[in-house]
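User: I'm preparing a small set of examples for a lab meeting where we compare how different chains pack in three dimensions. I only have the primary sequence for this one, and I'd like the structure in token form so I can line it up with the others. Please keep the answer compact; I'll paste it straight into my notes.
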Amino acid sequence: MPAGRPIHVLFVNTDLRVGGQERVLLEVLRGLDRARVRPVVVCLKEEGALGAQVRELGVPLFAGLLAHRLDLRVLPRLVALVRRERIDVVCTIGCGDKMFWGRLAGWLGGARGLVCEIHKTRDAAGRPVIERMNRLLAPLTDAFVAVARGAGEYLVEHEGVPRAKLVVIHNGVDVERFAPASAAQRAATRAELGLADDEVALLHVAVLRPEKGHAVGLAALRRVVDIEPKVRLFLIGDGPERDVIERRIAELSLGRHVTLLGQRGDVERLLPAGDVALLCSHDRVETFPLALLEAMACGLPVVATRVGSVDEMVEDGGNGRLVPTGDEASLAVALIELARSPEMRRAFGNRALRTVRESFPATKMVNDRISLFERVGIRT
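Assistant: Understood. Below is the structure token output for the 380-residue chain.
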């Protein structure tokens, strides 16, 4: 590699739909020092909703290299891309096809380093996320990136990741973009949402899928509003369960208390208008959810199920409350406690803000990746 040239890194994804690992990638692309890393992005399938934002950053983006699951032509296409863009490091995002084809193409194309980022542990059905074919490529791989310590231990103990190749880089948040709002900004957004001054707003940011536990959250809310009727829930996100969730809201007579805001591009503006961040996910799907970090960066206390590595960001009784997964009664108790105490919400929220700014800023997440790419990409 010519002296002084930045490391060329190819990020390999399936697509750039709106999801946690895709938004983390977008934040990394925003923060990379281009004097040290030149990023290139490939989507094996369609570009996805976030593709336009990648292009706006000036990052080369290639899509549509995989026509169908058994399209073996994806390999020579990727190898040609690796060679043409003079790629030094291939970094696959997630498991499945991209993890296999990306590493194989990087190896055949002459990339110096192969990195796998794994943003989840187990799929929605509880099955391992690293398939046998991908485990066979472990000897070729320089590093496996886990987004939390607990997730890393799981990958070593249950998914065949060599401990010597494990690197933990926590997800991070842009603390300039996600930050508490001024009193005037908060009041304006609350008015837009139809919130009265004395109403307590719960914000839940997640795709509308069964594993996100919306049913448990709604059941808990029914208990809450029977005692604290001035609590309202705002669901931010969309997905295949929308109709099911709408029916459940009607069955529980919660129409006055729940608002579905759909997919939003202004989450950083909505979060500071809330009072509590809520996460109800089941134990098989969450790892280190970016949505909670973003809410905490806006000064919101958290009520969440004790899933994945959430306890690495949320301290029960410190900056939020953690409850057992699927336990609507415990969830309701925690929500009522915070709904009744503005002082507790303020204290927890201040600690949540400090937690993110001290431990999980996007700058740390990005710099840790740059160091990794340079370590595996500058080799003789």
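A couple of notes for your slides: The chain has 14 helices and 13 strands. The longest strand covers residues 7-13.

User: Perfect, thanks.
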